Please model this.
Amino acid sequence: MSEEIKTATSDVIEQELERHGTYASVTRGPSMRPLFRTGRDMVIISRPSRPLRKYDVVVYTGASNKYTMHRIIAVRDGVYIIRGDNTYRREYVRADRIIGILTEYNRRGKRGTTDSVSYKLYSRIWHYLYPVRFICYKIKCVLSRIKHTLLRKKTKTEE
Amino acid sequence: MKIKSGFVLEEVGGEYLAVAVGKRAKDFSGLVRMNGTGAYFWRLLAERDMTQDELLESVMSEFEGVEREQALSDILSFEKKLRDNGILE
Model:
């Protein structure tokens, strides 16, 4: 028998990828929505076996031993420009900080692979929609600011 | 023994990986890595409550040329690991 039980920390992820070439985890945080939802889906991370390219979803280490899983949106002079599917900020990540690549997943109980046509299509469409998503996001921000200002004024008048 | 609900098991390159999802992810944040035998046990125990004997009988009828003692010791070590990590009900 060779079953092993590990608890997740970025050290463990790196060790597991080094020893076995694979790692699995439940997804956390909203930054890769709508593809993955917190606690709902399982992702399988592998040690990269080919050069990384645009649209790859990669796991990289950041400050204080934290790790993040976001998507490569461009490669420039050996630096990866990375962004979460549901974030609006670019991150510049050096190759040596990338420890793994998303290869398979279980989404809503269904197995999926990053080689599938539907996944590739989703990755590209979602990427091309970025300008539209960005505008919607900004409008939402402005509306929520207006709402807050109005509420604050209302509370002041009531006082 | 029975495996708690809320675990997902997937095969990756001949190995089997299980993690907890949904509400279960709150009390189990680890990764279970198994070979084919472990995954066989896992699938049975995820489906229904089984005693060690039932599990042993099932293994003996499923796999040919397995020694009873070896199978039992595998089952015991599997059960212990699952129990120690709070994976069993």
Summary: Chain B touches chain A at residues 8, 10, 12-13, 15, 17-23, 25-26, 29-35, 37-38, 74, 77-78, 81, 85, 87 (CB under 8 Å). Residues 61 and 88 of chain B are 24 Å apart (CA to CA). The longest helix of chain B spans residues 68-84. Residues 7-84 of chain B form one domain.
